[in-house]
Every structure is written in structure tokens, then in C-alpha cells.
């Protein structure tokens, strides 16, 4: 049966890999992102998919998505919250903002807006449209949220998704809707690090795994796809690790 699958951050990286995986099932896709040209490029590879450009850090952006779905679609079967990213890259293309506490406040606010608020606003806008029973809500977390590695502000922004997901699982469980977080480790081909990742650091990240390789967007996409399936219908309120064992340490 064809499902309606909404994927934020669906134009690039893991979000796009997830879109391709769901498209292989013939599902109806609605991609959400901030950059229209990125969405257009994604749609060129996903015939039949739809897209809406919206800034999900604002209530107006989330409402824009909800209004489109209200007019064009029925229930939302799967919601994948993959929007977010490295706040440091956002600042890399902007003028210097100075130092001190102002820089700290900016860094933390930016990362929470990108990684927490985007997911919360879109989910709250759409939770009354979720298929009941059978709906699936998925959040893209991070290994850093569980062990404090990398940018503290980014890690905290991802960690904030955990209590929200747990509370949502409690609220929506009686209606037959599951809620889970997928926590990737180092994943190549996502643009997360921009051009800043040295070969030495890359080797360190790979060496942390038990599998001896970097993750791929498809690894995470397959996990998201499985959690959205009927087979995973009794799994909810979980943080699912997709990091080749790196979370456990060497």
C-alpha cells in the first residue's frame, strides 16, 4: 500500500538517502528543505515526489508544510525529521560575530534551532495528521548526543530530541503510532564536516568502529526504513545506534 512519507532535510545527505529508499517502495514523498534549488535537484532523481521549501526553525515554516499536506494529501504515514546539521558550517559563510559570551550564546542558540526546533515544530504541526494506527515518527539523532563528542552545542541540540521523543512515544502510543530516534556515528558523503575534516581525523573516526569502515547514508536510511515498517510496530521510545560499534569504544 502506498504511504505518504514526509522527510525534512530530504534534499541532501541522509535525508535524501532515506527518500530514495522509501521511493523504491513506491511511497508518495514530500521533501522539506530550506533551499529550493537543492529540492529541485532531488526531485529530478525522484519522479513523482513533491517538495516544499520552508524554514522549519520558524512556526511559519512548519505551518507552510502542514497547509500543503492539508490541501494535497491525507494522513501522514511516516515523518522523518532529518533536517539539522553542523551550526559551525552556517557561520562559516557569514561575517565574524566576535567572541565572548555573545559567541557562546549564538553557537548554542543556532544549534538548538537547527537540530531541535526544526524537528519539534514540524512534528507538532503534523502530529494530528499522523495515520492512526500505523503512523511512524523518526528523528535523526547523533552519537555525539550520547557521549558528548564533537561540538557541545550540536551534541546538546541532538540530545534534546531524546526526552521529546520519549514523551511523544507515550502520548502517541495509545493511538498506534511509534516514535524512535536513530543515532548515526561518522557517516561519509553528507557534507556535515564541510571541508574541515582532515584525513587523520577521518582515520580516527573509522578506527573507533568495530566494523573498520565509515558509515554510509544508506546504512542510516535502511534503519529508518525498517523502523517505519510494519515489522517494527512494537518498537517505540528507542535510540537506535547506527555507528559500527563506535559508541562502545575500543
TrEMBL record:
SUPFAM superfamilies for the chain: NAD(P)-binding Rossmann-fold domains
Keywords for this protein: Oxidoreductase
Domain Ketoreductase: 3-190
Pfam families assigned to the protein according to its UniProt record, in alphabetical order: adh_short_C2
Keyword Oxidoreductase: yes
GO molecular function: oxidoreductase activity
Source domain of life: Bacteria
Record-stated family: Belongs to the short-chain dehydrogenases/reductases (SDR) family.
Protein name, as recorded: SDR family oxidoreductase
Organism of this sequence: Streptomyces alkaliterrae
